[in-house]
C-alpha cells in the first residue's frame, strides 16, 4: 500500500469515525479507490477486528444472517470492537441492506435469532445484568445485549456512486445516510498516480 497525502486524510477520517460512539461510515467512490484497504488500515491502527462476508455460490439471506450472528457474537458476547465492512458488490438481495438498516438504527435485526438462541444469549447476559443492578427480565437482558453490540459495532459501507443502485439504496434504506458519516473518495490526482507508479518502478 502506497500511502499518499489523500490516503492519509481518508485514514484519519475513518479512524475518527470509528472512535465515535455508534460511529458508522459510508465510503462513496469507484472500485479501486482504496476504500477497503484504508478501512482495514484504520481499523488496525484502532486495534479493531474487521469482519466481512465472503459471497460464494448459493450465498443468500440465510447465510448472510448466520454471518450477522457472528458479528453479534464478537460485539455483544465477546465485547470486541469490530468493523463490519460491507461492499455494495456483496448485495445479492436487498434484504441484506434491510438488515443493515436495522443494525444502524436500533442495533437489532428483526427475527435474527430463533427463540432458543435468543434465550441462550439472555442467560449469558444474566450475571452482568444482575451485577449492574438491572431488572432480571427477558427484555432487560436482551436490551443489555443489544447495548453491548451497539457499543462495539462499527459498520463501514463501501458504495459506488455510478449507476442507479446507489440512489435506490439510499432512498429505500434511509439509515444508510442518516446513521453514517459519509466520506467521498474522489478520483486520485495525477500527482498521486505518479507517486504510485514511481514506487513500483523503484521496486
TrEMBL record:
Pfam families the record matches: AAA_8 (PF12780)
Q: Cite the GO molecular-function annotations of the record.
A: ATP binding; dynein intermediate chain binding; dynein light intermediate chain binding
Q: Which InterPro entries match?
A: DHC, Dynein_heavy_chain_D4_dom, P-loop_NTPase
One biological process GO term for this chain?
Answer: microtubule-based movement
Q: Where in the cell is it found?
A: Cytoplasm, Cytoskeleton, Cilium axoneme
Residue stretches making up the Dynein heavy chain AAA module D4 domain: 1-203
Q: Which UniProt keywords apply?
A: ATP-binding, Cell projection, Cilium, Coiled coil, Cytoplasm, Cytoskeleton, Dynein, Microtubule, Motor protein, Nucleotide-binding
Instruction: Write out the GO cellular component annotations.
Output: axoneme; dynein complex; microtubule
Domain of life of the organism in this record?
Eukaryota
Primary location recorded for the protein, binned into one broad class: cytoplasm
Q: Which SUPFAM superfamilies does the protein's record reference?
A: P-loop containing nucleoside triphosphate hydrolases
* PANTHER family reported for this sequence: DYNEIN HEAVY CHAIN 6, AXONEMAL-LIKE (PTHR22878:SF68), DYNEIN HEAVY CHAIN 6, AXONEMAL-LIKE-RELATED (PTHR22878)
Q: What is this protein called?
A: Dynein heavy chain AAA module D4 domain-containing protein
